[in-house]
User: Fold these one by one.
Assistant:
Number 1:
Amino acid sequence: MRGLVPIAGIILLALLPLVGLSTYMMHILILVIMWSVIGMAWNLLGGYCGQVSFGHAAFFGTGAYTAGILYLKLGVSAWWGFPLSIVVVGVMALIIGFICLRLRGPFFALATLAMGEVLRVTAENLRGFTNGTLGILIQKRTWVEKTWYYYIILAIAVFTFLLIRRLVNSRLGYYFLAIREDQDAAESLGINTTLYKTVALLISAILTGFAGVFYMNYMGYIDPEIVYALHDISIITIMVVMVGGVATFWGPAVGALIMVLLAELIRSLPRIGTAHQSLFGILLILIIIFLPNGIVGDFPKLKTILRRRA
Amino acid sequence: MDPVKVEVFLQTLIAGILLGGLYALIGLGMTLIMGVMRIINLAHGELMMVAMYMAYWLFTLLHIDPYLAVFIVAPAMFFFGMAIQRFLINPVLRVEAILPENQVILTVGIGMVLSNLATIMFTSDYRSTPVEYASDAWYLSDLWRSSPIELSFSVPWVVSFLFAVVITALLWYFLTRTDTGKSIRATAQDRDAALLMGVNVERMKLLTFGLGASLVGAAGCLFIPLYYLYPALGGRFTLIAFVITILGGLGSTVGAIIGGVLLGVFESMTATYLGMGWAPVGRFIIFVAALVFLPGGIASVLRRRRLGG
């Protein structure tokens, strides 16, 4: 029975556009699914392997810029960013991994944060190559309608979900957990921790890069402040996973749904809109203090709290 | 050698050292918190931003000179830091969670709230304190008539630098000569051993966070006559503090001072010779170089020298 739940969920999601949702609703759904992909990718590295990255914007942005520069400089469709981004983002992940993976815990976190910022500043300054702060605009988007974008991002999300579930349940997944729980113990048991951390980073980065390529194609405009943003990409990625549940399969999707809806809700409220970062920050603080394993991870705890109230 | 080139080089070097002295003060606060609490305070730059707003309003409303404001803002930040430690960070240290980095993420949340509240309360306008000595300078030719080259020393930069040096010296005295300071250092070296020796570790943590916040608060007061102030400025200085901490060696105070000065000089050099926009990239090049070639930071070099005789 339990195995049928994901399949039923996918079928339900695939049928959703047929209901005739408004463009706005489709946009929200696409954003939720895109953030789920980024969250799931982050979760593989952060939740399962224990390497908390504060710089996933580096991979998101690189994916987006790979697609954008293909269009801008070579005049080919930005969709070709998908295959190319595997190489570009992969190489980027190996370089960042070489530098950052020698650090542990909070130092890894900050080193990745710095990497994201380096890439943002570089993209701003390499005007000839990236158009600098002007950004890249795709003159004519492939489809005006959102249905196809929806199916593309849904396919990426399903692929990501299945891949990560497969990985986590494999031998590799146990290595990841061992590294998260105690890196020295894992090392002394003969696990090549550097290798497996690099593998986790590589997969996580490429999946995040896919989301970036999709973003370029879907939104049609990027600039360094948008795709390499520290708060609006890297930190929100962490929040998506923290709110939903670290090291759970469904956590990132739940977190993405809550965060996107919350962002839209806050934006629509007059006068409170400017305070959205404060509200996110307070939410983050509350989640860390009261539900440190997220809504999915601490679901039993949440249920007992609610039952006691009732 | 072309005297103009020499002049530019020396002027850049001086600007770098003056900036580095202030950077050292920011890095010191972070490295202290790092050493004692084993967490990175990612709201460090935002704390400085808060202090800068305090100094700004003290100047604008009460006409208190930023350099005098140090004596008001630093103690205020001390209590602010202690409150953050007591009411936000301590509860999280007790919570069971999968990821030990929760505390770091918590400080990110604090930083987000602080910078956003500043935007709401004070708007994102650029502000500055128009002190009357802002553009004053001392010239080398005033001191030494027959000097072959001309160098200028901006008054607020030099005064800020001297303040930073005095505060650093006081901190050094506090950490090495007083009982409380020694207890803080003991806690940083080995928490359990310090506990067994009768050090009140919880109190030391509280004091350290307060001290770190007041150091960066002082730095904020020293920066305000020099820089524009805006709410998003915090993030940049958090990164700077972190780069200094890595460069100097984690938890090392001497390393933080040397690291701060090195970073200041390096940034100033990239700004002069490559262009202003590249200064942040220069900062990260030095950061990456430190990680790859000198993982223990400057502290490890110092330690090796001492052991090698």
Number 2:
Amino acid sequence: MKKKIFTVCAIIFWLAVWQIAAMAVGKSLLLASPVEVVQRLMTLIPEETFLPSILFSLGRIMLGFALGTVTGILLAVLAGKFMVFEKLSAPLISAIKAVPVASFTILALIWISSSELSVLITFLITVPVVYSNVSEGIRSFDRKLTEMADIFRIPPVRRFVGIYLSQVMPYFRSAVKLSVGLCWKSGVAAEVIGTPRGSIGQMLYNSKVYLETADLFAWTLVIIVLSIITEKLVLLLIDIAAKRIEKL
Amino acid sequence: MLKAENIKKRFGDLTVLDGFSHCFAEGSFTTVMGPSGCGKSTLLSVLMGLLIPDEGIVTRSSDKLSAVFQENRLCENLSVLSNLRLVQGRKKERSGLIPELEATGLYNCADKPVRELSGGMKRRTALLRALLADYDILFLDEPFKGLDTETKNNVMIYTREKTAGRTVILVTHDADEAAFFGGETIMLSPS
């Protein structure tokens, strides 16, 4: 309880700092105040483009995340099984990690339409994170547990769920926690560059073009809230799965 | 029946087992004793088939084995109950395990992940898992280590009840444990 009170107090403190700074600057074009941002958000929500924009970006970013997660897991399993595959994929994963989102985005714009851009970018962001964490989980397998499973003649499905999956789950959870936030950051950044019609990225781009700083802050607030909600939801699903595994 | 004939096992230059032979009769309780490093755990690993001897033959009448290993070898992210269910042929209901959990003092932590348990609780979980498994030969490698005197006594009584008439091979340093379980005692000496 005390911790929550401290958190709320800290948030109020920084909102007050922001408000005072905005008042000191005196120009909402340079720094919109929190009050202005909330007021703008209240007028944005009823607009008919608001919800479709959210659904557009949410759907694509989550699709890229889901595809990236599945691919990352598959690659990690293959790398864990075949050393050649691990060695072969290592430079590719490092390259994907190192290349800036902007470079990928510009290159991707040549290959695909801007409306599918965020799917590809979030996919590329998710794969190395999930791959690295799940690989680490696989590498940390206690081989003595395999011996234990052999002695007790544990059947394959129970062995996979109870021993292997239960050991990888914490690593997978960390990967997902990290990926969801990164997906929103990179996905929206890609949309700002590609400006697909009806996306949150286009709204952010418009706020820059029309110098609507309050819009920029309001949409940023929407992105943060969406990022937090999706992260909590995905983690909730993982925790439910982990609980089921924990109880076998 | 479990038979070891002229078992030799070396690790580099170190000879750990040098011509060990013994026939463990069906339904017998055998305690293997000896000082640290004399090869007790190595012998168990060879008898279980986890280590291949350099020379000699191990003959087992059954491959239905159960064991408490030198380490606990538990799934740390699973609950005590799940660790028990993992090795059981069919999914046992919680109610069916209550007497076993109570006897080993694990009832109150049955749903806790093993990673949150103390060393003694983990050891008891590993022991209970081995005792509840479907087996013909049970290998116990210092199963009571890390337990306080009272808990150890209770768990030893429980173990004796559960293993009566079964083929058991116990490795221990403790002569009192050997005396408590009776049966045959094999003294190993450093090779």
Number 3:
Amino acid sequence: MIEVNNLTKFYGDHKAVDNISFSVKDGTVCGFCGPNGAGKSTTMNIMTGCLSATSGTVTIGGYDIFEHPMEAKKLIGYLPEQPPLYLEETPREYLRFIAEAKKVPRERLADEVERVMKETQISDVADRLIKNLSKGYKQRVGIAQTLLGSPKVIILDEPTVGLDPIQVVEIRDLIKNLGKRHTVILSSHILSEVQQMCDEIIIIAKGRLIAYDTTDNLEKQLQPKVMLEIQTDATKEESEGVLGQIEGIENAEYSEEDGLLKVLITTVPDRELEIRKLLSRKFAAIDRAVLKNDKVKANLEEIFIELTHAEPETHEEKREGDEP
Amino acid sequence: MTAVFRHELRMMFSSLTAYVYGMFSLLAVAIYMMYYNLSVGYANFEYALAGASFALLIMIPIITMRIIAEEKKQKTDQLLYSLPISTTQVVVGKFLAVFMTSVIPLVIVSVYPIILKNYGNLYLPTAFGAMFGYIMLTAALLSIGIFISSITESQPMAAGICFAAMVLNYYMVTLAEYALSSAYGSFVALLVIEVLLALLVRHMTGNDLLAEGLGGVAMVATVAAYIYNSDWFEGLFPAILEKLSVYERFYEFVDGVFDYTHVVYFISVIVFFLFLTVQSLEKRRYN
């Protein structure tokens, strides 16, 4: 559905996007992740035709965004980082204007506006001025705008930024629902958020693509070793004895927690389940209780920080202000 | 285009802009009509329009300052870029909306000469000829105002620059005749204008080489022409301004001349400034 090839963008001498290529299949929810100033917004602006590229191509549903902008733009609904709202209008008026601009047939106009308002749950504020709405509602109006005309692709730039935790959950649910009928691309600087919502993740930093894979694969790839955490009332010496009998344990770290011994074990991935069973039995055999025996969830956040900072430092400073 | 037009018109009428503009417009014509036609007793409605055209200096900035500057400030321009409508359609739609807003009060004004006709010997064709000229003048000034609104993000800034441009437009011929009609005066004025144009080119294209090249060639040509024969420059600058001034063309209509070249001129001014506006918006995508 979306093909991005060797995309590069310079702002003057500053390279904001550096030779990025990826393709997103129909019906996927794809997350764009990277620290602030990584080039997420720039890439999205180029993909939606708001900004020109220095080189490279973007194809949406077979149409090149630079060669056939009108056809390509008809397939896209775009929510920029700051929702583009006319504050002096009501959501109904605003959505009507955009539906007209998207060439929704006149007789279906009112129904289409009703439909997206229902979907984004803004029907009850439909006739209040947008400037009087809360940030969460403004964001919903922004998302409603992208849904008009049922475009195949929906691109959302930092849709949950600046919302309170309850609103964040609501917007996330909304986006997950959208993923059932549209191809969705969203950006965020919080990896765990992208991890929750997306099938595929693209990580970029300093304008370069660092990782691009399905969420599951990425978790495996980034975390080749499995970590186990156990809690036991055995002493450190007893535990060392037990662990020594089990094959496949590569490392163990001991610490004290609530009067119990906490052991963090690194193992090879394919034997993880077997090792967990063995641990239970062996400790039971020496009459010691195991109070916790769990796989530790891969901490993508740490790896993300590692990845995005491991990139060789360039001499250029990050220039936030350059992002339009 | 119709979507942008309707949207813009609705915004104009849901805020105070359209009403304030209409009030100023009607008030200006009314005051001058009171003076020229009712008080002094001239049988020429044209004079009232000529007088009222002065009020456009304030009215044009009021109506055009918001039109594009606000889009940039609220970042709604990103929305317009991402919608399946071209920049030209956006600009033309906006222009038609402000034009419509400015023409509506004139519909009321167009009844005045008919009323006056009942009480005196008014010649209607020249009155309506001047009315047509007044509408063309308004449209030309609006396109300049829209362009100025597109080069800044701040409404007050747009209004300020626009007001300065309008005043300059209004007085430039008179001023130039006083100060710059000598050959040397014209020469210096031309050089200054060339520098300003080069700066504008640089601001719009961001290309130093192009701006310096164009400005340089123009200035060298001017200096060469001045050295070769300075007589050419006698009264040149006021003459050029007279040809360029939109107000001078309008006064021709007031004098009862209906010349198609003037109509073509007004349309050229409108197309030129709308073209510049489109370029100014497109430039943001290629920064």
